Amino acid sequence: MNYTYYISSPLISGTQYGSKGFASPMKELNEQTVLVESCENKNDSYRQKTKYDDRVDGYFSTYDLGILLQNRDSCLEGKLDSDGDVDYYSFSYGQKSFYEKMGVGTEITIRLENIPEGSDYDLAVYDAKGNQIGIAKNNGNGGKELTLLDWDGSDRYTIRVENHGNGNGNVDAEEPYRIRIMEEKYQKQEKADGRQDYSSEIEKLHREQYDSLPEDERYTGTESVEGLLEKKSSGEILDKREEAYLKIFANLHDYERAAANGRLKNTLFPKMQEALEKAGIDVQGKEYAIEMDIYGKITVTGELSEEEKRKAADVLEEQFSDELWDCHMQASDYTTVEFNRIDAYREISSFLGKATGGQYSCDDISVDVNGNISGLSEKMCQLLNSQESNGRYEQLRDDILMLYDYGMDEFSSYKVRYEVAGTDIKIVNN
């Protein structure tokens, strides 16, 4: 028997956007699916959502990797673009609660395959709260895999893929890695619900992971997880033992914020300073502020001449606007919903500015009760409303539907801000 699987518009807290949900074309559950990570959608933060194009049916795309469960030949193909690139994927497993009610247990195995020759990629899985609940190990076949343990009470996960050694190895930006997700069902024995011990089980798992580390990656210092995160956030370079320790014990949300702050101080800020000096702007020892609006326009204020402020804004806007935005957003403590709304407005604004030469903006968009988008050019509306759009247009449509109900104009005045004092830079949170 064949089952039909409908992929609908993205879910926020398990609910659709009212009656405006979009249903992608039908997909047979037992058909092979090869999802391809789209280079047009960023997925270097756990809060970002990415779309995938299906190599088998060119128009099919989805937020979620759960579709891979239905066929053992199905997989996701992704690429690490650089040594320091990190890829995040969402994976939901809503069937789990249904199986439990039926007395059926499941084992989910996640496998990382086709790791480029000479490379060493890592895969880890986190629950909805950011707890690390699995690190893939070598399986003897050139890949890595893990099986989610039966005490895990989650049904939403984040998969993280990165280069081993914190970006100090080789990556192949042309050769894709593959992720497969497989399910095994079994009849559960009667036993007491152990979810109340979830925290202790996680602690036990982390201790086992730590004990299995090679000796040269096992941290033996006295710093707490919080202390190591503070060091990382302040710009200190952690050694491989400290990094391995955080990869096991730190919450994903806290780790990403610390990593973004550290990247700002160690990588982004020095590049910015160098670019400004090359442009003939003396910033040594100066105090100044960088502010960027949601449309990417940068202004500079502080101890610089008016000409220097103008030139500095031009340099930063031309070379660093995306990095400044991403770093600020990743280091923020926004909820996922807040993050998605702000980022969606910026993505829509940027797309319309580039695609229409500024002829249209978010203010022109309308959505009727059936979820049909209007107010833009006829061709663009056709693409946004089509059920055979590629991942990029499907992403834009989903973002428009999300923001239209909330209020498109709520984000037009949003800005990110950095303050510089000599050799130090900090993010000013809104």
Enumerate the strands of the largest sheet in spatial order, edge to edge or round the barrel.
4-3-5-13-7-11-10
Report the total helices.
10
What is the strand content? 15-25%
Tell me the Rg in angstroms.
23 Å
List the secondary-structure elements in sequence, H or E.
EEEEEEHEEEEEEHEHHHHEEHHEEHHEE
Kindly state the mean pLDDT as a whole number? 85
Tell me the count of domains: 3
Shape: globular
Please identify the structural class as seen in this structure: alpha+beta
**What's the total number of strands?**
19
Low-confidence stretches: 1-26
Question: Short summary of the structure?
Answer:
This protein has 430 residues and is α+β, with helices and mostly antiparallel strands. The protein contains 10 helices and 19 strands.
Notable traits:
globular, 19 strands, Jelly Rolls, 3 domains, 7-stranded mixed β-sheet, alpha+beta
Structure characterization notes:
The structure is a single chain. The protein is of the alpha+beta class. The protein has helices at 95-101, 164-167, 198-211, 225-233, 240-249, 252-278, 306-331, 336-356, 378-385, 391-406, and strands at 4-5, 27-28, 34-37, 52-54, 75-78, 86-92, 104-113, 121-127, 132-135, 137-138, 144-147, 156-163, 177-187, 287-293, 298-302, 366-367, 373-374, 415-421, 424-428. The protein has three domains: 31-190, Sandwich (Jelly Rolls), CATH 2.60.120; 198-253, no CATH class; 258-430, no CATH class. Strand 18 and strand 19 (424-428) form a beta hairpin. Mean pLDDT is 85; it is low at 1-26.
